[in-house]
Task: structure prediction
Amino acid sequence: MCEANAYLKDGENDILFMESVDTIEPYENGLKLVDIFGKQKFIQAKIKDMALLNHRIILEKTEL
Amino acid sequence: MCEANAYLKDGENDILFMESVDTIEPYENGLKLVDIFGKQKFIQAKIKDMALLNHRIILEKTEL
Result:
């Protein structure tokens, strides 16, 4: 399976925000993440970078 | 393999920009994409959305 884990950048650390993410799309002024089970999470953030072979997506909080 | 194809949004169409993308990271005022063979491409764009199980990443051009 080709899902990835989404981490939220917090200074020097990356905090796990959601596992097994399938889709990410814009939602209002942030992002909607949906995992492979259909569970949704919303976050006021943008996609900073990703490494698909490592199954990592890094999100970064955005200002309101 | 869990690479994805990156498409550039052009109105109603999505134009294939790069195949077999592994990593995407910010670069200057756009993005640097690296494929599984190590080839690099740069684009003045942001990540709009993605569907990993479908191996699709949609990029959107940004203004200078």
